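Inverse folding, one chain.
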């Protein structure tokens, strides 16, 4: 006997699956944000026990979150590379929240950078940033956080002035210092 698929039920199942997948991604994103916040508190000098008491979880959960946050970081040479990476990691988080605003600020930053005379290498980096900012957002995120030499150079000539507020910049720099000291 041939089974008959009710189109209404098929649609209902498809919509439920899409909603479940969206919720799963949001949960994973929230877990990463929590781990980053815990790393930030640790970088500010809070102990594992202090963090656990403040957020209402066990020290083991805090320790696990710290290990996961640290484990996502690449091995970088020098404190300046850690700082540039953490600043761009914070920018990529903003990019998820406000892609249009971040890209617009990046393009505005490029305009300001081009107002100052640069050599051929500097012009090459500004052209590369423009290409990335006008392209696919996921590719932009990947390039900003890549660990190759090009990405390191790009991070040191960043167009993202004004994307992070002072507190976000300080947090990123503290994270970088704590990670570089390890």
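Residues assigned per position:
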């Amino acid at each position: 006997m041939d089974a008959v698929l009710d189109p209404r039920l098929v649609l209902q199942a498809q919509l439920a699956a899409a909603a479940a997948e969206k919720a799963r991604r949001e949960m994973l994103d929230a877990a990463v944000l929590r781990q980053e916040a815990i790393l930030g508190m640790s970088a500010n000098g809070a102990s594992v026990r202090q963090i656990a008491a403040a957020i209402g979880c066990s020290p083991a959960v805090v320790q696990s979150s710290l290990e996961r946050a640290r484990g996502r970081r690449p091995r970088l040479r020098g404190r300046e590379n850690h700082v540039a990476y953490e600043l761009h990691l914070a920018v990529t988080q903003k990019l998820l929240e406000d892609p249009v605003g971040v890209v617009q600020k990046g393009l505005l930053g490029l305009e300001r950078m081009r107002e100052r005379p640069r050599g051929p290498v500097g012009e090459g980096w500004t052209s590369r940033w423009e290409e990335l900012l006008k392209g696919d957002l996921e590719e932009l995120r990947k390039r900003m956080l890549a660990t190759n030499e090009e990405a390191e150079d790009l991070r040191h000539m960043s167009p993202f002035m004004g994307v992070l507020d002072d507190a976000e910049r300080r947090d990123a720099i503290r994270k970088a210092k704590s990670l570089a000291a390890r």
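The chain has a mean pLDDT of 92. The longest helix spans residues 7-43.
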